[in-house]
Amino acid sequence: MQKLNIGLFGFGIVGEGIYKVLEEKPQLNANIKKIVIKDAQKKRNAPSELFFTDPNSILEDPEINVVVELISDADVAYHIIKKAFQNGKHVVSANKKVIAEHHVELLELQEKNKVSFLYEASVCGSVPIIRNLEEYFDNDLLNYVSGIVNGTTNYILTKMAQENSSYQEALKSAQVNGFAEADPTADVEGFDAAHKLSIVTLHAFGTTIDSLQVIRKGITALQEKDFVYAKEKGFAIKLIANTKIIKETNELQATVLPTFVRLDQTIALVNNEYNGVLIGSSLSDEQFLYGKGAGRYPTSSALLSDISALQYDYKYEVRKKLDQPLIYNQNGYRKIYIGSKFSLEFITNKLEHIEERFDGAGYHYIIGKISFDELKKEDFIHHPQLSIIVFE
Ligand SMILES: NC(=O)c1ccc[n+]([C@@H]2O[C@H](COP(=O)([O-])OP(=O)(O)OC[C@H]3O[C@@H](n4cnc5c(N)ncnc54)[C@H](OP(=O)(O)O)[C@@H]3O)[C@@H](O)[C@H]2O)c1
Fold first, then answer.
1. Residue 39 Cβ contacting ligand 1 at under 6 Å
2. How confident is the model at residue 2 (pLDDT cuts 50, 70, 90)?
3. Is-catalytic flag, 25?
4. CATH 3.30.70.240 domain span(s) along the chain
């Protein structure tokens, strides 16, 4: 077992968490030698001689063999990870944005520099989804991976459903309780979920999808009336991230969309800040992973697992590699609900088939079938006055 000398980048919610966890695990043979942060003036709950502001104090220290990257600035993090590889250091990171945007390049760099790059904490906090896809399902033909991968939006949707709150009220509650950041855009607009979906897609199917190609809609346009409809019909509304292979057309369909989930489905039971992921396999049918998707200690649990895996030289092998080219998000259709305070006359031509329509005072909805080509048009999917919810 090799001794791990760690250089830690970031001492925020997660950085301080893994520092404390490692302090309590001397048997792990992993020691944090230096910590790089941004603001030298902040008071820290650790000895001051550990802290530095110059990244090179870690990156050029030959005694440090592991970089744990936990900073909030994605551009800086990208350069830190690259330089760490070039200097022969293993990297553990939780930064889904950087990983999703540079996934293949970073995996190639780890290969070239003969080091490991592990990032279980970047997807669903404490839920061991990547390791399961890599190790347990590596020979199983998977059909889909689908679920709730963002705790902030799930907390907000739970509040809206259980307390009849408006989106703004539920967001405020999430912020007060530490489940949403001051700027919640990445979470509530679905970007964070799209990054995680892109990472999962590579490990599930051996192919990548750019997060910008994911058909994405967040939860900001949802209204109280949508939840009344859901309750009446026996649904929960969840932000579901779904990646699946359509074998007949060799197509990858990857979506992050508000979704009506039947109340008797497992995923409808995932509430508050919890995450839940379904893995659809041709052999085992369906399996379900559930746990805390974020927060100091749940995220540290995944980091701890990665750090201890480095002691036996573990690395992702991404054994599934699709050689045939795939097409992305082209041939799909979804049953869709479109709700609004305003008349929906102007969008009826988008639907191929209208199943149900309601026009009341200050509330209108249409249910019908829509093609992916129409669904993904920017002016439609990101229309601020349209609640767009698909059916499972
Ligand atoms: N919070 C979660 O539950 C969670 C879950 C999964 C993944 N993640 C990921 O984990 C990472 C860290 O998240 P967090 O919630 O711990 O963030 P945070 O509480 O905002 O802490 C960010 C840390 O990064 C440091 N930092 C920012 N820019 C820097 C720079 N240019 N150079 C050096 N240090 C810099 C900050 O330094 P100062 O202390 O000096 O300001 C701070 O210590 C992010 O990639 C996030 O997406 C977080």
1. yes
2. confident
3. no
4. 332-392
For residues 107 and 101, what is the distance between their CA atoms, to the nearest angstrom?
12
Question: Nearest residue CA, atom 46 of ligand 1?
Answer: 95
pLDDT of 319 above 90: no
Q: Is 37 in the pocket of ligand 1 (CB under 6 A)?
A: yes
pLDDT 10s digits, 134-184: 999 988 889 999 999 999 999 999 999 999 999 999 999 999 988 999 999
CATH 3.40.50.720 residue window(s) in the chain: 4-127+298-310
Residue 46, SS3?
Answer: coil
Mutate to test the pocket of ligand 1, among 50, 72, 78, 274 (most ligand atoms within 8 A of CB): 72
Select which of 34, 82, 89, 196 is catalytic: 196
Cα 74 from chain centroid? 15
One-letter amino acid identity for 325?
Answer: P
**151 within 8 A of 273, measured Cβ to Cβ:** yes
pLDDT tens track for 25-58:
888 999 999 999 999 999 999 999 999 999 999 9
Per-residue confidence band for 231, with pLDDT thresholds at 50, 70 and 90: very high
Measure Cα distances from 372 to 10, 253, 352, 367, 378 in Å: 40, 9, 11, 15, 12
| 332-392: in CATH 3.40.50.2000 | no
CATH fold group of domain 4-127+298-310: Rossmann fold (3.40.50)
Nearest in space to 352 (alpha carbons), one of 365, 339, 366, 363:
366
Ligand 1 contacts CB of residue 121 (under 6 A): yes
Q: In what order do the strands lie in the sheet containing 90-93?
A: 51-52, 30-36, 4-9, 66-69, 90-93, 117-118
Q: Is 180 in the pocket of ligand 1 (CB under 6 A)?
A: no
CB of residue 126 inside a 6 A radius of ligand 1:
no
Closest ligand 1 atom, CA of 38? 40
Query: Is the predicted pLDDT of residue 325 greater than 90, yes or no?
Result: no
